Each structure stands twice: as structure tokens, then as C-alpha cells.
Write the C-alpha cells for this entry.
Amino acid sequence: MSDCIFCSIAAGKIPSDTVYQDEHLVAFRDLNPQAAVHILIIPRVHLASLDQAGPEHGPVLGQVLLAAGEIARQEGISGGYRVVNNCGKSAGQTVFHLHFHLLGGRDMGWPPG
Ligand code: 5GP
Ligand code: ZN
């Protein structure tokens, strides 16, 4: 989608601090980090949110979680991190291209706010 900021990042049209990319995914550091490690993992395919995902997206959703574990290892936070998806405005979603936050490097409370 031409007016989607994360599509532009995935296409390399907007610069980002990329930590991982392959044919299906891109992962880059959040502009406004909420933890010592705060990385966004996005599928290259544009889906506004998890609500738009169907069975055909099962493989890429699995790849997101496997990448999260791999990036956590790279970042030295294995054993202490969170993978978060905010789905919809009321859950805090502000960018409507599906993305997963990988957060670590600090203690976290539960339940999240
Ligand atoms: P959401 O609130 O939708 O779950 O998360 C959106 C995240 O994207 C926020 O944490 C915000 O800081 C981050 N973000 C928004 N615009 C940009 C950008 O242009 N570059 C990067 N790296 N992060 C962004
Ligand atoms: Zn997009």
C-alpha cells in the first residue's frame, strides 16, 4: 500500500534500523522504544491488523514468532522478552500494518495496561 509507512519501510523507501529481513519479513528498531530492546517485526504483505489474517497467512505468522525467538537470541534477551500485538485502536494500535513488538531488557509488569 503506497500510503502505508510500514510498507514504505519494508520496501526500503523510508530508512529504518533493520535487524533482520528475508523474503517474507522485516524487523527493525522502534522509533520510540519502550524497553532497552524494542523491535517491530512485520510481514512484507500488507494486512491492516490481525483481524485481516486468514488461514493463508498461517505460514508468515509462524515465521514471525520464529524470527522473534531468533532476534531475541541475537539481542541477548532469550528467556526474558515479550511479543505483543496491539489489534485495533482500543488495544493501542496506531500503525495499521500488522506488526509484532519484541520487547526485552527490562522487568515487565502483568497485566499490561
Ligand atoms: P502500535 O501502537 O501500532 O502497536 O505500534 C506502532 C509502533 O510503531 C510504535 O511503537 C511507534 O513508536 C512505531 N513507529 C511509528 N512510526 C515509526 C517509524 O516510522 N519508524 C519506526 N522505526 N517505528 C515507528
Ligand atoms: Zn503496509
About this structure: Residues 1, 4, 6-7, 46, 97 surround zinc ion (ligand 2) (CB under 6 Å). Residues 72 and 78 are 5 Å apart (CA to CA). Helices lie at 5-10, 58-75. Residues 5-104 form a domain with the HIT family, subunit A fold (CATH 3.30.428.10).
